Amino acid sequence: MSFVSRKKMTAFDWINYALLAVISLVCVFPFLYVFSVSFTDPEVYVPLRFYLFPEKWSLAAYSYILSTDSFVNALKSTVFITAVGTVLNLIVTFSLAYVLTKKDVPGRGPMMGFVIFTLVFSAGIVPNYLLVQNLGLLNSYWALIWPVLTNAWSLIIIKSFLESLPSELEDAARIDGCSDIGVFLRVVLPLSMPAVAAFTLFFAVSHWNTYFNALIYLSDAKKWTLQVLVKTLVIDSDNAGMAGAGGDERSVPQETIRMASIMLAMAPILLVYPFLQKHFAKGVMLGSVKG
């Protein structure tokens, strides 16, 4: 018969849990406020009043936003940048990381040196802007994708993960007649699914939250991303960009429109993350220890 021993709670544990509970509430309350205001009926909404839960539920703010051309265009732009950018990030990062794991590849040392150099030093905003301008990518979605195809941190983490995979599997695949590309596609990638899932989330969240680059590279309001549109609504207090609405803006308070736009910008990531959380944690930890 086995007995499960329970750790005795100390005063430090109680204080620690209490502080964590307070911090959690501090983080949750702003989210609850945004959620409540976004679903509050315009007829009962009172400005500058804290809503823990809506007094009367309504989808008026969401109906108004989803009926505007500006939000639909911003959603299409963000989805395109996130989907295409994430796929290209995965292809470039995993391919380059796999090459860097091979000690017999010519120029591997200098390539690794360049990667580490970019981890420490950055060109800055002005050189990056001039590069995008000279490439003819200004006011193009590709300005938000090509310059960030990969990064040093992701390369180093994925390289460490790939080096932890058994090399005997690759040798067996080559004996069976696989080329280097075949080994990468048929052996390495299937074994790397936890890391692929983790970095899919990393890259997707990064592209979905693209704000600064979109702000300086996209001059056409029709190509704005969701984050730029939300910034215009929330910080600039400007609803002029929400053109083409089917309803009457005067019947929907600006505050509920802002909060609903924030919820719509957060919703996709909040819905996807729970399904990738298991692979996210596993993928981050697998490359941390070799052996």
Describe the fold and architecture.
Helix 3 crosses helix 6 and helix 3 packs antiparallel against helix 9. This protein folds into 2 domains: 58 residues, no CATH class; 231 residues, MetI-like fold, CATH 1.10.3720. With 291 residues, it is mainly α.
Report on the biggest sheet: none
CATH H level, superfamily name of the largest domain:
MetI-like
> What structural category characterises the helix and strand content?
mainly alpha
Roughly what is the average pLDDT, rounded to an integer?
Answer: 83
Order of helices and strands: HHHHHHHHHHHH
Number of domains: 2
Instruction: Show unreliable segments.
Output: none
What proportion of the residues form beta strands (DSSP E)? under 5%
The CATH architecture of the largest domain is Orthogonal Bundle
CATH class of the largest domain reads Mainly Alpha
The DSSP helix count reads: 12
Could you tell me the number of beta strands?
A: 0
